[in-house]
Amino acid sequence: MTALSDTATLFDRDVRAKLRTPWPYVESLADPLLLLLLFAPLAGAVGAAPAGASGSTMQWFVPGMLVIMTFSTSAFIGSGIQEERAAGSLERLLVTPTHRTAILTGRVLRVMATVLVQALVIVAVTAPMGLRVPAAGALLAAVELAALAAGLALLSLAAGVGLRNAYAFWGVVTLVYTPLIVTSGALLPMHLAPDWLYALSRVNPMAHTVDAQRALFAGDLTDPSIGLGLAVSVGMAALGLVLGVRAMGRLRA
Amino acid sequence: MIRTRSLTRTFRTDHGTVEAVRGIDLDVAEGEAVALLGPNGAGKSTALRMLTTLLPLTRGTATVAGHDVARDPVAVRRRIGSIGQGNGSFDGLRVLEELTAQARLYGLPRRAARRRGEELVAELELTGLADRDVATLSGGQRRRLDLAMGLVHRPPVVFLDEPSSGLDPHSRAHLWAHVARMRAEQGTTVVLTTHYLDEADTAADRVVVVDHGEIIADGTPDQLKGKVSGDLVTVELADAADAPTASGVAARLPGAQDVEREGGVVRFRIAAGDTVTPDVVRALDAAGVRMLGTRVQRPTLDDVFLTLTGRRLREDAAA
After folding, report:
1. Which SS3 state, helix, strand or coil, does residue B216 take?
2. Mutate to test the interface with B, among A92, A100, A110 (most CBs of B within 10 A)
3. How far apart, in Å, are the Cα atoms of B1 and each of B68, B180, B191?
4. What pLDDT digit, counting tens, does each position of B67-89 carry?
5. Which residues are bridge partners to B288 per DSSP?
6. Residue A242, SS3?
7. φ/ψ of residue A30, rounded to 5
């Protein structure tokens, strides 16, 4: 069978499984909304983020929260494939003619779909609170979030398949979690950071997506961060795909 | 249907290289059912994983259903069903969903796949469970679902890796009944691994005994049992004090060997145990030994394994 139709089959299978156990996705949705509710006013009060009118607070915070939500939905899915491997259901797929790449891409598509639905919910909740949603910008923002989701999900899957045990996987995730979130600039603006920290944030792909999301929701389609953010996400997805396919090829289920 | 030559697999571990499978030559004819029998760690599962394309061969060749497992693994995968040791279905999905997904992965269009799934639900007595989350199934039901998923594309060869481990006797019997029916209806070639001797005995035409990664015996269950010298005769004595006398009498019977005594019980092996029992009873009677009863047991595959290796197949099978 072709990689495409297998991807469709496994996308369908994964969607059904996740619809029945939606709690992780409710959590990854609740987290950014709570940050928005509790942290944004605090950041505004200390003058780190635009306070003033609630509209501008939303305008500054929501794009970052969309990126954090994308991270928490995508970056841990490598553990899901480890669970399937431990249970035996990955082996059952591997003895069928299923295209190896489809075992990754089916899941990645499902993650992208989840991220888009969650982004829709966040925007729908915050628009009445003052978030401006320019049509063209929001559409492009959705594309960038989906690309970021694909990049993070593929790298996570590559780690999940490549690392033999769950401890190693969560070890890696825990190690990268804090630096990625802090230097993304989603919570506090990176231009407040010392030079070395700012420099560090420039190698964090998520920092570029955050910049791009802010520009897109501001309706400034000429901002160079938009192209950079997309390029970085696509690059991450390409790297993740190469590593993931290689790990699948070496997999001894 | 299956042909291996010098099938070899080595693993590198922290303690050096381990040869899990050492040069196995195995031929399985179309429609044959072969059991690979051996203790844990004998290399049965490793051999099976090479035949099902899950593990590359270190050396040697293997052809399954007309295709080389190393050169054309996808062609092999299309023609085999493989039921592994774990749960093939994943928690959170429903029985019919898993079957439909499986059928689609073998290339059936969505609706045909669903129809095939419904057929298998009926065939494997999963009726009424089609919309149940697989996590809520019993062990036996879950194993039948695994079998159903392996049979979705009506493969000519089916591999079963310790399919009945962890099942209660009723579910085991049920599972084997389905395997037997599949063989009768479709002439499916079956290769299974087990360390249950009774299963190898009833489910397989041929038993291949594997130990330390090598084949140490290969034949029909009856041929293998013929390797054990005679039937096991057990005599229970009324008085344990007669045991030395009784074992002396037994040892003098023509062809008797392996005489053992344990409390008031004397055991020995002798050819055609059924027909010599009257002689045994007469001889013991003449020696003044009173008996509570006698019993004759045909050799089991466990006895075969003991004869071949000097070890029991499973520690808990020593009873």
Report:
1. strand
2. A92
3. 11, 18, 11
4. 999 999 999 999 999 999 989 99
5. none
6. helix
7. -65, -35
C-alpha count within 13 angstroms, C-beta hemisphere, residue A191: 3
CA distance A51 to B241: 100
Count of all residues that appear for chain B in the document: 319
Find all residues with CB under 8 Å of B187, minimum gap 6, and list them. Answer: B30, B31
- Residues of B with a Cβ under 8 Å from any A Cβ are 52-55, 74, 77-78, 80, 82, 84-94, 97-98, 101-102, 104-107, 133, 146, 149
Output the six-digit token pair for A226: 């938009």
Alpha carbons A242 and B102: distance in angstroms, whole number? 26
Instruction: Determine whether the interchain pair B101/A18 forms a contact, defined as Cβ–Cβ distance below 8 Å.
Output: no
Complex prediction ipTM: 0.84
Q: A157-187 as b/e, with b when 16 or more CB fall inside 10 Å? A: bbbbbbbeeeeebbebbeeeeeebbbbbbbb
Cα gap A5→A98, rounded to integer Å: 9
Mutate to test the interface with A, among B14, B90, B94, B149 (most CBs of A within 10 A): B90
Contact state of B92 with A1 under an 8 Å Cβ cutoff: no
Closest CA to A12 of A102, A76, A120: A102
Nearest Cα to Cα of residue B313 among B12, B33, B22, B40 = B40
Dihedral sign (CA B119, B121, B127, B131): negative
Cβ-defined contact of B93 to A92 (cutoff 8 Å): no
- Chain B hits for A1, CB-CB cut-off 8 Å, are 105-107
Residue B256: is it exposed, middle or buried by C-beta count within 10 angstroms (0-12/13-18/19+)? buried
Please list, in sequence order, all residues whose beta carbon lies within 8 angstroms of the beta carbon of residue B287, skipping any fewer than 6 positions away: B245, B246, B248, B249
- The closest of A150, A122, A168, A141 to A30, measured between CA atoms, is A122
pTM of the model: 0.85
Give chain A positions within 8 Å (CB) of B89: 89, 92
- Runs of H (alpha helix) within A95-223: 100-126, 135-162, 166-183, 195-202, 205-218
- Summarize pLDDT for B273-314 with one digit per residue, the tens: 888 888 888 888 888 888 888 888 888 777 888 888 878 776
